[in-house]
Amino acid sequence: MLNIVIATLITAILAGCQTATTQYLTKPEMVEVAGPYSHAPSGMMFPLTVGEFRRGSITRYDARGFDVSVGYNLYQLPKAVAATIYVYPSPSIVSIGSPANVVESARSTLCQNEYEARKREVLGAHPGAKLLTEDVIGSPNNGVAASGKSATFEYEEIFAGVRQPIHSRLDMFCYIGGKWTVKYRFTYPAAFDAKQELDMFIEKVPWP
Predict the structure, then answer these.
(1) What is the rounded distance in angstroms from the CA atom of residue 185 to the CA atom of residue 192?
(2) Which among 95, 94, 75 is positioned nearest to 192, based on CA atoms?
(3) In whole angstroms, what is the distance from residue 208 CA to residue 202 CA?
(4) Burial class (CB in 10 A: 0-12, 13-18, 19+), 36
(5) For the chain, what is the mean pLDDT?
(6) 3-class SS of residue 101
(7) 6 band by pLDDT with thresholds 50, 70 and 90
(8) Predicted confidence (pLDDT) per residue in 32-50, tens digit
């Protein structure tokens, strides 16, 4: 019983010992890159095209360029998808010499909190939005052992010039390379079965 209490206490301490080193910009900045864009801190590379998707805007949210997003678009009707990849530091943890399983438990808790926050973000930004499905998903990179979480939402808004029912998918992976969160947001008409295009897109943007 004492061991359980100690482990729980250490987990709580770990969860509270995050470092705030990211200095966010007052206003996000656009990054102009002619060719492939390399996010040097994480090692991720973003090509101009991914299958039928074409790269759009690159946005930096902090002074050092740790927190960025890269947009891609597929617009070949009836195929229409807006895709955005976000890369940013996962919450920091001070291990204070704790066992690996306790650190992993703290990471899992922090990752779940981040995932729930991003779900609320989607639901809050789109009136009438509802959560359709949630799943645990595997790593798209054979060289990286990681599991993630996926949620699909539905709401109605103007997309591709037409007001219509929309599906929005959120995929999120934490502590990639021990440090990075990689988040995918996909938006597409509910009438379009985009699973094949979305899975291909994730597989073809390599993790470091």
Answers:
(1) 16
(2) 75
(3) 13
(4) exposed
(5) 88
(6) helix
(7) very low
(8) 999 999 999 999 999 999 9
CB neighbourhood size of 183 (10 A): 19
CA angle 179, 40, 188 (to 5 degrees): 75
- Strand spans (E) along 40-196: 44-46, 49-50, 53-62, 68-76, 79-89, 130-138, 147-159, 162-176, 180-189
pLDDT of 4 above 50: no
Owning domain of residue 196? 2-204
- Measured CA to CA, the distance from residue 189 to residue 42 in angstroms comes to 32
Number of neighbours of residue 128 by Cβ within 10 angstroms: 9
pLDDT tens for residues 59-81? 999 999 999 999 999 999 889 99
What is the predicted pLDDT for the residue at 15? 41
Helix (H, G, I), strand (E, B) or coil at 34: coil
Quote the pTM value. 0.87
Look up residue 188 and give its two tokens.
């597409």
Query: How many domains does the structure of the chain reveal?
Result: 1
Instruction: Take residue 160 and report the two structure tokens written for it.
Output: 């591709």
Write out pLDDT tens, residues 178-206: 899 999 999 999 999 999 999 999 999 98
Structure tokens at 149: 């979480």
Of the candidates 122, 128, 109, the one whose C-alpha atom is nearest the C-alpha of residue 183 is 122
Give CA angle at 12 (10, 16), nearest 5°: 115
Beta-strand pair 147-159/130-138:
antiparallel
CB 38 within 8 A of CB 197: no
